[in-house]
Amino acid sequence: MPTIPGIHHVTAITGPAQANVSFYTGVLKQRLVKKTVNFDDPGTYHLYYGDAAGSPGTILTFFPFAGAEAGHAGPGMASAYAYAVPAAQFAVLQDDLAARALHPQLSTRFGARVLTVKDPDGAPVELIEDASAPDMHGFHSVTLWERDPDATARLLTEAFGYTATGTERTPAGERLRLTAAGSERGRIIDIFRSDVPVVPQPGAGTIHHIAFRAETQADQDEWIEKLRTFGHRTTPVIDRQYFNAIYFREPGGVLFEIATDPPGFAVDESPETLGQALKLPAQYEPMRARIEAALPPLKVPA
């Protein structure tokens, strides 16, 4: 039976698309690896950022809604994603963010330095020093904000194969760290419990769901059966063009996805031109002219 090797992608909600593109490609130097539409709402972009190849464990995606009201995280939501930053680049990154007047906040977490900046929607983007990081394109961790961390922790350890590797108390609350076996990107999940009551509000600047990796279709099929034994009924397998997905709510309320590594983002364009053209699934190709007319043009900073 497989265990989860780490995060496949994180999907969040944003406001106007151009500000999002400018920040994640221009400031954080992520590559726009896919420009497509929300498969459930083709009048809206679905933007994917990652490393040069669009590798699992590096993918951050956004649904841009120009008129979306601002949201904020709370219990039952994923509340932050963190990129791993090589130690040698941490100070350079800190200086660059300060020069851009982004006012990075420096803190420590489990002994590692953390920079936190706000993206154009006010979402916290964490940049964590990690001596094992090969570059600044992969996830370090994701934080889940839970009222009762125990049930979520049991799912992650007993079903997914994570190991509890530490706790940390801060003035804001308590953080439990869970780590997947191996050395893949994004193998850390932190579960945070706040000491202060907060009412969550989905909207721009919040995370919609997090997706874990299934390295093969056979692995995903096994996860459907295994999760059933733990009392979780998943959706059927859904074709997302670049991966197959199943979804379910974990005990605390966060929407979890398990996504296959194949076929990947080069299935419909070359690795060299990833993200340059608007790609549509086959069912929307007859609507291309209408879709292109409705979507705002986007420019990736040089």
From TrEMBL:
It holds the Pfam family Glyoxalase. One of its GO terms (molecular function) is dioxygenase activity. The keyword Transport does not apply. It comes from the Bacteria. The keyword Iron-sulfur does not apply. Residues 6-130, 138-261 form the VOC domain. CDD domains: PcpA_C_like. Transmembrane segments: none annotated. Keywords: Dioxygenase, Oxidoreductase. This is Ring-cleaving dioxygenase.
